[in-house]
Amino acid sequence: MQSPTRLALIALLALHALAITTARAELKPTSDKQIDLVIPEVAGDDKTVEEAVGPLVGWLELKSDLSESPAPFALMPGDAEDSPLAQVIKKLKHVAATENYKGLVVYLNQPSITYSQVQEISDAVALVRKSGKKVLFFAEAYDLRTYALACSGDQILLQKNGFLELTGIGVEEIYLAGLFEKIGIKADFVQTGKYKGADEMFTRTGPSEAWSENFENLLDDLYNQVIDRIAAARDMKPNAVERAMEKSFTSGDEGYIKSGLIDKTVDRNLKSVTGELFGDEFAWDLALGEATDEAVDMNNPLAIMQMLMPTPKAKPKRDSLVMIHCHGPIMSGESSFGGLFGGQTVGSDTITRALNEARRDPLVKGVIVHINSPGGSALASEVIWQAMREVSKEKPVYVCVSSLAASGGYYIACGGDKIYANSSSIVGSIGVVTGKLAFGGLLEWAGVGVHRRSRGPHGDMFNIVEPFTLEEKQALAKMSDRIYEQFVGRVKAARGEKISNIDKVAQGRLFTGAQGVKNGMVDQVAGVNVAIADLAKAVKLEEGKYDVINLPQPRSLPAYLSELFGVNGRVPQIKAGFSGDQLGVLNVARAALGPRGWQAVQQAMEGIMLLRSERVLTLMPQAVVVK
Hints:
Elements: H1 4-27, H2 32-35, E1 56-65, H3 84-97, E2 101-112, H4 115-130, E3 134-143, H5 144-150, E4 155-165, E5 171-173, H6 177-183, E6 186-192, H7 200-203, H8 209-234, H9 238-247, H10 253-259, E7 264-266, H11 271-278, E8 283-285, H12 301-308, E9 320-327, E10 330-331, E11 346-347, H13 348-360, E12 364-373, E13 375-377, H14 378-392, E14 397-406, H15 408-413, E15 418-421, E16 426-428, E17 432-438, H16 440-446, H17 470-495, E18 510-512, H18 513-519, E19 524-525, H19 528-538, E20 547-551, H20 557-565, H21 580-608, E21 617-619, E22 624-626
Parallel strand pairs: 1-2, 1-8, 2-3, 3-4, 4-7, 9-12, 9-20, 10-11, 12-14, 14-15, 14-16, 15-19
Antiparallel strand pairs: 5-22, 6-17, 13-21, 16-18
């Protein structure tokens, strides 16, 4: 029997989800008339793809954040299938494989994308071009990321009097020691790895020489990759690209074209370009192979509730590969889609359960572990590593790194038989950190008394009032060194002779995916689609004759609400426990930092808060905001 509180909460959230669904439907055009809402007069007539029997031109709009994980809960029956990024890739592949497309227009409506995602989408665009179709990129404004993506097309179009803001890569590293000193908090950490830098966000007001050396090397390679990418696509020398970038802020339409960065500036209707390349006899296709959602009777409350609360089913029906998503800080227990600071976490129980499910299912022929993680709990990382090795005894396990597989993220990557990463992915940070935040000064200022009692050796070690004693710190250093040697041992076992000198890649050093191939930490520079194709070939699955199943699968809406609000027949409590004022401060911080900045801080804080329950972390909790 459901409690009234629970039913009321589910009903309220269902109505909110319905509003989201309705908004999504309004923002997702289904015919060429609706393109007019975005690009006036881009369609020449009222013909839709459903009515068309002749040539098609695809229309793909990229906007907002392109998550690489499936939705945390199944709002619609098909939501369990793919992440937003995977849906984009699938649409591009559809255009490449379908003969009656003349080409594709990609509208970059200020999407928030990473450089790793730029590579993933560019690889799929290359398939479209290889099939003989033209790909045009259009935007009202380009920044360096979206411009790097546009370089994968045949032409780069800019709205007349639009903006080309090609600033270089800027990095902001956030340090909290000064703040902690003012409010009476002392960070006390022990780390193993000269270049680790995991404690510096909390113990310093600026970077150490070792961390600067580590990160400068990484930044140089990331920047050079972007410049080389633009230079190759635009047939320019790297120094010419940098000169053009420098002038991009002060140039206008004529200057953009003269510099070679833009092919044409166009009216928003795009007719001058589409007519020239595709002629007038074509229909716009906005679905790009995506099935149209079945109509729901919005006047029927039961139908609405049924639509919003499907029970996700992700069981293989034929030969399949399983993709297991490990996105966020790694911790013991269950994965979470709304951590203390709103981020996603990787729970060892959730991931090992998914791995075991894939291992036992005879229809699952191989596993891909998709990683985007700064690391976290050393214990949870080891648990996941062991589960991956168990699967690999029976089925191949490939690893694909998205933007980041650092510290514990790289630890679990070493559980795979083969590691793929994009050229701009960040890998490494082989090191260990442990410690705590001592709140004695803050508590004293606030008038809070703490009376401590303990029994046995080190019973009071992790109190919240005082830093570690010398004896306690020595014990922690020994434990940290032991876990570090275990970490290095896992890397040696996985990479073998591919890494000629482990000391040159360990000690907390960071590398790009491109550097990782050279030093043996990565097998191949490639994205998830190449990893899937290679794994399918390895297990002798023919293209089109297998499925890719995402795990962990999305929860049903009631289950998601139960996790989010702690609803178990009792009065709901928000797990994070923030007051209204605190939530206001967090929202201000999120707005000030922007989506990418907030994600970096969010992951760092989620990671360091693990020290409340985990004693040793394989974590890169440095809050680095790349702009």
